[in-house]
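quick one before i forget lol
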Amino acid sequence: EKEDIVLGIDTIQKRSEGLLKFAQVYRNLNKISQPQIKAIPIKELFANTFNLLNAGFEEQNIDFDILLKEPNLIIHADPNLLEQTVINLLVNAKDAVLGKTNGHVELSAQEENHKMIIKISDNGKGIPPEIIDRIFIPFYSTKPNGSGIGLSLSKQIMLMHKGNIHVASKEGVGTVF
């Protein structure tokens, strides 16, 4: 339908702009410019992300759920950088559940003690304890074609926002970022 095409093109345009900014940030890894902070409705961030990634999840028979108990949550962040971080973590979560018959990835948000907590959880293979301390190190990757920059850049982006990324993982059970 026409609306779907327009939505698709709009989503692609937004992601293209986000990827350009992401590329600029990566090139200037040592001299990252200040993020352009804006008030972002979480439900908008999640809707954009869902529109972009859901088809890929469906193709792989992976359940991709969004849990947002408070639909009016707002986060103050750079929209392109935050979206890129969320997408990176979701793609990692998707990779972690690939091939599992009941693969499940969940994106959720809640406010705790005046802080916004965005969680990406999966029921994938989990991260072995011996490497969990290394996953945020630039250029460290366990993926055959991985660059090892996704998580380190995501962490840097969160630190620029005076935030952080934490991970909890149990082998054979899943992971939460």
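fyi Strands lie at 38-41, 63-67, 74-77, 104-112, 115-122, 168-170, 174-176.
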